[in-house]
Amino acid sequence: NPNRDNRNEADPVPTGVAFDDQGNAYVSLLAGFLPGGAKVLRVTPQGEVSDYATGLTTLTDITRGPDGNFYAVSFGQFTDQGPQPNSGAVLRINEGAGSEVLLQGLPFPTGIAFDADGNAYVVVNSVGAPGSGAVVRFDHLTEMAGEPLPTPAAQPGS
Question: How many Cβ atoms from other residues are within 10 Å of residue 37's Cβ?
Fold first, then answer.
């Protein structure tokens, strides 16, 4: 960004909101396409804002599952050639930098919802060719074991 000493950064955009039982809002942020640049904010009913989960990439939605955990969709990875196909993921969001990858290799996912049994419904191919979009069901996603979120590579200027 030439207006910011040529640092590789972007302004975050809110993409989803979910609530806990205490009325706190959890807001997913799409912070450009910088690996590790996205996060989830917690906003209390009194309006206090803090980082809840960090080190995330291209978040496009967040929801609370029937198990009480938060889940988010990562649209995918970007390189200088643009968005990389089949690099999207579904994450279990944990406080701090400890979120987990539950599903990976998804084609441009943008939304997620659950039924009462913990089955996830994920919107994929949201930016694909006309007619290629779909909602895919993943049975018992809330019961899946996750893998630690990979540490993003350092970006020039960061």
Answer: 23
pLDDT band at 158 (very low <50, low <70, confident <90, very high): very low
The 8-class DSSP code of residue 2 comes to: G
C-alpha torsion angle, residues 128, 132, 133, 137 (rounded to 10): -130
Burial readout 1-30 (b: 16 or more C-beta within 10 A, e: otherwise): eeeeeeeebeebeebbebeeeeebbbbbbb
Confidence at residue 94, expressed as pLDDT on a 0 to 100 scale:
96
- The residues, ordered by sequence, that sit 6+ positions from 3 with a Cβ below 8 Å of its Cβ are none
The residues that bridge with 106 in the sheet, in sequence order, are 88
Give the amino acid at 81. Q
Residue carrying structure tokens 């309006």: 47
| Whole-angstrom distance, CA of residue 40 vs CA of residue 98 | 12
Does the pTM surpass 0.85? The reply is yes
